[in-house]
Amino acid sequence: MRFQVDGLDGTAPGRGAASASLTGRHDPVRWAFMSHKPQVTRFAPSPTGYLHLGNARTALYNFLAARSGGGRFVLRVEDTDAGRSEERLLEQLLADLRWLGLEWDEGPDVGGTHGPYRQSERADVYSAAVATLERQGRVYPCFCSQEELQLSRRAQLAAGRPPRYAGTCARLPVEEAERRIAGGEMPATRFRVPAGRVVEFADLVHGLQRFASDDIGDFVVSRADGSAAFFLGNAVDDSAMGVTLVLRGDDHLANTPRQILILDALGLPVPAYGHLPLLLGDTGAPLSKRDGAAGLHDLREQGYLPGALNNYLVRLGHACGRDEWLELAEMPANFDLGRTSRSAARFDEAQLRHWQREAVTRASVDSLVAWLGPRLDAFASHARKVEFVAAVRGNLLFPVDAEPLVRTVCEELVAVDADANGAMSGAGPEFFRRAAGEWVSSAGDFKAWTRAVAAATGQKGAALYMPLRAALTGTTHGPELAPLAALMGPERVAQRLAAAEARAAAR
Question: What is the Cα–Cα distance from 184 to 105, expressed in whole angstroms?
């Protein structure tokens, strides 16, 4: 870390020098430093809700950054908010990450040498860090109530100043603090930010960042109940777990100088930082549930395939090494943090659907059978399910798309739309009478049947196939007709031709 004190530059001894020297976002030396050595990355979600699509991108980038250099990917759970953290949400979060294919080397469910991996189980680590800061005189007790802090914040905003802690308790005599604690008051603990310094670091996405310490204000490192605040717990855990590269959303950019100050005060290594631009919805606001597809859990429920999400996310604000489809195993070699945009990315459902189409096209038939699940229960055997999926896969984007096609094949009667009704009426009853007769003669040979119908009626092209499709499926568009007819079976085809004749005669 580089400081500027009284107009002179200095570097904190033994820490952060590599990070501080990397000042250019597109400097090839900078990214060579990152890519030619194994990196330890981490993803640190809170189990207070489902995984957001933007968080899933952060998890993927951390996974790829670790895998691209043969490093280590750590999953750490930040669950100190006991009132909002839920075990079921943690289980869902882990399941969704594994569904994407993101396996971690260390974490709460796989163990590792740097555990425990739940912050709720690391209170002793944080207490020791706070004790060290207390011995150094780098922290002090703060008795300010939430109401007092809010009033101070409002006054600063009204005066046109950025809100920061006013230092009310910074000069409180030790004796008075001890008296108030003995009287039962429970203070928070604030870090004493050194005055007149500049905290500088090279962000691997946004480039050189400089923060004046006088603009930061003393911040809480330990709450009144003794639990560690985010600034302290997050930074201490990164060091304890050997994290060398922190990739996270750029809403954390202002947190980084605070965490660098803590690490420097504790004599701990400072990792490299990269802050990814936020993911925005169509309105330009950060993507949320209101945009319809913010949660990974929601997208999974809709039927998106993991390969579609990964191919979309790896290109979301990142110039991927290849434009075409990538398997997850191919992505580390095509990932370069130096090609990440500084600008916020916008959620584009059309692009996500494009990759979903690619995923469905490339998936095996058996995996699509599993994907469709109970929607194929109308078919008695696995072989019939496979035959159906092979016939209709080009018309599937989501599992729900299979439902009308299953009905078309399996139900006795088929719903007829307006275009199909018009096609049958236009062909006339004689067309379907001859088609039914040729169906019996062709013994279910679809190609032989259509040739015979063409010869018997004098129709060809759309005039031949459109009425036949309308009669058999109730619509004038859809999958190839021959395999659908094979799935329907001879009796159902004959039945529907007869119904089409009656319908045409009734007009």
Answer: 45
Cβ-based neighbours of 201, under 8 Å, separated by 6 or more? 1, 2, 16, 19, 20, 208, 209, 256, 257, 260, 270, 273
User: Is 342 in a helix, a strand, or coil?
Assistant: coil
Higher pLDDT: 87 or 270? It is 270
The Cα 307–Cα 299 span in angstroms is 12
**Contact at 8 Å (CB) between 199 and 141?**
no
Question: What pLDDT is attached to residue 195?
Answer: 93
The set of residues, in sequence order, having a beta carbon less than 8 Å from that of 478 and lying 6+ positions away, is: 395, 405, 408, 469, 484
Q: How many other CB atoms are found less than 10 A from the CB of residue 314? A: 23
Please answer whether residues 278 and 341 qualify as being in contact, where contact means their C-beta atoms are separated by less than 8 angstroms: no
Mean pLDDT, the chain, rounded, equals 89
- CA gap 82, 35 in Å, rounded: 38
pLDDT digits (tens, 9 = 90+) for 111-159: 999 999 999 999 999 999 999 999 999 999 999 999 999 999 999 899 8
Tokens of 106: 């260390």
To the nearest 10°, the Cα dihedral for 124, 126, 130, 136?
100
Please report the DSSP string for 185-212 in residue order: ---EEEE-PPTT-EEEEEETTTEEEEEE
228: left (phi over 0), alpha (psi -120 to 50) or beta: beta
Q: Which residues form the catalytic set?
A: 289
- Assessment of whether the complete model's pTM goes beyond 0.85: yes
- Can you tell me the distance from the alpha carbon of 388 to that of 486, in angstroms, rounded to the nearest whole number? 10
